[in-house]
Amino acid sequence: MVTRGFSSGRKPPTDADARIPPGQYLEQGFPVLSAGPTPRVRTEDWSFTLKHGPRPIKTWNWTEFNALPLTKMTRDIHCVTAWTKFDTAWQGVLVDDILADAGVEPPTGFTLALSFDGYTTNVPTQDLTAGKAMVALLYEGKPITPDHGGPARLLVPHLYFWKSAKWLNGLQFTERDEPGFWELRGYHIYGDPWREQRYTGDP
Amino acid sequence: MSDGPAAQSPWQTMTISRIEKRTPRVTSFFLEPSRPFAYRAGQHVDVRLTAPDGYQARRSYSIASAPEAGETIELAIERLDDGEVSPFFHDIAAVGDEVELRGPLGGHFVWSDSDGGPLLLVGGGSGVVPLMAMIRLRAARRSAVPVALVFSARVWDEVIFRDELIDFHDRRDGFDLVLALTREAARRPADYSRRIDAAMMEQSMLRLPAPPRFAFVCGSNAFVSAAAQALIDAGVPAGLIRTERYGV
Ligand SMILES: Cc1cc2nc3c(=O)[nH]c(=O)nc-3n(C[C@H](O)[C@H](O)[C@H](O)COP(=O)(O)OP(=O)(O)OC[C@H]3O[C@@H](n4cnc5c(N)ncnc54)[C@H](O)[C@@H]3O)c2cc1C
Question: PANTHER family recorded for this chain (chain A) (predicted)?
Answer without folding.
Answer: OXIDOREDUCTASE MOLYBDOPTERIN-BINDING DOMAIN-CONTAINING PROTEIN, PROTEIN-METHIONINE-SULFOXIDE REDUCTASE
